[in-house]
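Input (structure):
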């Protein structure tokens, strides 16, 4: 079946037939000039376009005009889910009496009759929303959401949802409609997302509160049973991003489940999409190269698609193929993955694209370069899911394009078909190649047969591997917008020279395969490190399964208990003197490298104040007399409102913190079970006290005092004691203190802290006290340095503070 594809350009509005015709539709009543915009109904039954004088509505199957509305200032048009109604928005104007004009108008599609009109200054196509069955429609007024029966939209309001501070709402799809509303943070109170069933607004179905949310985006699954909420702040206070901090939350309409989606890479969330079956979703997140992960219907990570420079993801309508792409300021590389086998199908380049959409049958991907995003090389391309470019059409100043939608039942899931023959395609080397199988680490010709360190070889191999481990083909030559096809310089001469150079090197060193060269360079120590890292990865996978409620075998539990010793052994191997290539060792020939004992250098601190506690630490990690890491985060969260500061061996303290975190999770789970089966007053969200967490740390440190090198400060807030601080120095003692300091930097600031500390300090005084104390320690102690990280823990939550190195207090240094 041929799919239609309308496009709106500077000169005209045209409707194209897709594969296999690829030609403009004959007999279509297009406007004399260009149109302002166009829109299809959800299932493609009706089509409308806007001109300077009117809005015309057509039957999309027969191309017969149904109705016409004469309006001269219409900017946008959109349909209700079944196409029974459509809405138009015009630029607001002031009337003679000073009031605003009714610029948001609801019309009946078949007759063109006006049903209602409202004054709406801000533009958004979510200003008026309908339920899936079109029984109700809703619109937001200041602090309220008004509901009407759709057939009576121009009459009195049917129901109102009134909550102070509402800034956004969204109606769910599906048979049982619900409404989600968003209330931003106000006066220190957290932001809220609440869901109500229509028309019962007396009690919420689900409620989620969180901080760091100046604005949100809501993503419903197609069934309307679950909601993803993407939150964003205007400014990232940690300084890690220019675009604010993002988080993702999951809410079930039934009210029986909600959580924050755990993402294991720092950085912004680029894109989120639900699968068509409503049982899974994919998130693209993290600093570039970003990471993509598949999650199930309970927000558990199911599959990792690897890391690549991507910021876009979309399922085809049948859910069989997933498209990942890097558009905008990225180079336009597109990956197709088979959802059934979770294997990559192909990779190709759609450079300079600003639009991407699947065809209704899920076989073709439409990409386009639109104005004003880019004013040269405008046009569209159609790709088969095998990566073959099927059609390419250049269009002068292309503004809008899209497929005619179709119901999901029109094109059911089927086996993947072979690629059709291209009709018209100027490929310019853009067609895809199938994903290759792994072929081992690459070794440059000039290093084959040499004694280059394995770590150096591994770093080089990363340049030639894709995120999923498959070896990439030669990257496509970057295209220059506006340049003629084939204008880039040819590389034949360079390739010939490379072949000659390779032959010369092989004559001297002897030809060696990449795999042989890589294996030959591994020493016994490197092999042991590799095996230990493999075991630690397996243990972390087991811990993830255990945290999700899976039952582990006795051997697997014993394996988890052995993690601390493995981490300690790995750290000892990694900090010993590394065998360097001769070219690197000449400048160090007069220096004696230490055998590898880890220095315990750090500066940590915790202080209680009225209403909470503040924990703080420097960020320098040292290995002997060398700085191993300048930006370590030594503040570890072990429960919602409990943190620990770590000094000592990084491996030891991290292992102890992980174990304590696991036991605290089990504590909360046991409290909930006790509530359910003994009918006590224990609530589901009962949290362990800070004293319970400190006792667990003390027990671990004392029982293993001869094997561990760990000094811990535990601090947090609980309902029983409020903000409390516990110090667990080397040896495993447990002392509750109003403030505690630790690490090598603490020896320089005992006198300063004793003189400056005072009881009942305010939050602001406490922040300055911690900042000044740590800055003084960092200026005196050679093993402390970097930046200052702090966490303010109160009943309302945790606020992270960050002091960069150039903003440290200078008066004390």
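Output (sequence):
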């Amino acid at each position: 079946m041929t799919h239609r594809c309308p496009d709106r350009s500077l000169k005209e509005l045209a409707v194209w037939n897709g594969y296999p015709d690829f030609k403009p539709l004959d007999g279509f009543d297009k406007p004399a000039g260009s149109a302002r915009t166009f829109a299809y109904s959800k299932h493609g039954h009706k089509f409308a376009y806007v001109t300077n004088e009117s809005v015309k509505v057509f039957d999309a199957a027969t191309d017969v005009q149904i109705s016409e509305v004469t309006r001269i200032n219409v900017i946008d048009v959109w349909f209700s889910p079944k196409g029974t109604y459509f809405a138009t928005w015009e630029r607001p104007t002031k009337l003679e009496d000073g009031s605003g004009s009714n610029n948001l108008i609801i019309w009946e599609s078949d007759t063109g009759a006006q049903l209602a009109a409202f004054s709406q200054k801000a533009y958004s196509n979510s200003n008026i929303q309908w339920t899936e069955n079109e029984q109700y429609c809703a619109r937001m007024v200041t602090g309220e959401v008004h509901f009407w029966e759709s057939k009576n939209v121009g009459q009195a309001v049917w129901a109102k949802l009134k909550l102070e501070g509402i800034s956004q709402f969204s109606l769910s799809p599906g048979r049982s409609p619900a409404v989600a509303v968003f209330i931003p943070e106000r006066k220190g109170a957290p932001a809220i997302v609440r869901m109500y069933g229509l028309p019962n607004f007396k009690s919420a179905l689900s409620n989620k509160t969180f901080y760091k949310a100046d604005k949100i985006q809501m993503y419903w699954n197609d069934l309307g049973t679950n909601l993803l909420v993407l939150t964003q702040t205007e400014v990232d206070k940690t300084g890690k991003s220019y675009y604010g901090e993002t988080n993702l939350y999951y809410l079930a309409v039934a009210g029986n489940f909600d959580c924050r989606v755990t993402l294991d890479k720092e950085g912004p969330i680029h894109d989120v999409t639900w699968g068509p079956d409503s049982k899974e979703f994919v998130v693209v997140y993290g600093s570039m190269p970003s990471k993509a992960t598949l999650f199930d219907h309970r927000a558990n990570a199911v599959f990792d698609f690897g890391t690549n420079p991507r910021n876009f993801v979309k399922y085809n309508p049948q859910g069989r193929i997933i498209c990942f792409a890097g558009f905008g300021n990225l180079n336009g590389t597109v990956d197709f993955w088979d959802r059934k086998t979770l294997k990559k199908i192909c990779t190709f380049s759609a450079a300079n694209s600003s639009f991407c959409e699947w065809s209704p049958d899920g076989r073709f991907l439409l990409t386009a370069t639109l104005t004003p995003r880019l004013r040269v090389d405008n046009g569209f391309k159609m790709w088969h899911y095998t990566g073959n470019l099927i059609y390419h059409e250049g269009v002068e100043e292309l503004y809008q394009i899209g497929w005619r939608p179709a119901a999901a039942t029109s094109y059911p899931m089927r086996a993947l078909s072979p690629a059709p023959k291209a009709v018209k395609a100027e490929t310019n080397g853009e067609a895809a190649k199938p994903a290759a199988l792994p072929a081992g680490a690459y070794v440059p010709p000039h290093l084959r047969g040499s004694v280059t360190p394995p770590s150096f070889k591994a770093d080089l191999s990363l340049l030639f591997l894709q995120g999923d481990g498959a070896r990439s083909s030669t990257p496509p030559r970057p295209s220059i917008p506006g340049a003629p096809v084939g204008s880039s310089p040819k590389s034949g001469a360079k390739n010939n020279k490379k072949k000659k150079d390779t032959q010369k090197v092989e004559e001297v060193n002897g030809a060696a395969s990449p795999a042989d060269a890589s294996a030959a360079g591994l020493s016994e120590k490197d092999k042991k490190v590799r095996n230990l890292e493999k075991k630690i990865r397996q243990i972390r996978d087991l811990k993830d399964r255990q945290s999700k409620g899976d039952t582990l075998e006795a051997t697997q539990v014993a394996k988890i208990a052995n993690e601390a010793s493995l981490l300690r052994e790995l750290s000892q191997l990694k900090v010993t003197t590394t065998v360097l290539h001769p070219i690197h060792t000449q400048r160090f020939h007069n220096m004696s490298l230490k055998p590898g004992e880890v220095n315990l250098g750090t500066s940590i601190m915790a202080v209680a104040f009225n209403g909470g506690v503040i924990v703080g630490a420097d960020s320098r990690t040292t290995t002997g007399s060398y700085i191993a890491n300048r930006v370590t985060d030594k503040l570890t969260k072990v429960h919602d409102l409990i943190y620990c500061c770590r000094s000592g061996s990084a491996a030891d303290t991290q292992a102890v913190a992980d174990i304590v975190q696991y036991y605290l999770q089990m504590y909360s789970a046991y409290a909930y079970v006790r509530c359910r089966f003994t009918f006590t007053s224990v609530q589901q969200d009962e949290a362990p006290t800070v004293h319970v967490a400190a006792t667990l740390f003390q027990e671990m440190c004392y029982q293993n005092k001869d094997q561990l090198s760990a000094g811990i400060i535990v601090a947090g807030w609980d309902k029983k004691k409020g903000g409390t601080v516990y110090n667990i120095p080397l040896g495993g003692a447990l002392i509750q203190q109003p403030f505690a300091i630790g690490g090598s930097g603490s020896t320089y600031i005992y006198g300063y802290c004793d003189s400056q500390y005072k009881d009942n300090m305010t939050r602001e005084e406490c922040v300055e006290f911690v900042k000044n104390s740590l800055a003084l320690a960092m200026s005196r102690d050679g093993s402390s340095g970097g930046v200052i990280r702090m966490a303010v823990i109160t009943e309302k939550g945790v606020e992270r503070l960050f002091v960069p190195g150039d903003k440290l207090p200078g008066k004390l240094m």
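Notes: Residues 524-545+554-586 form one domain. The chain has eleven helices and 49 strands.
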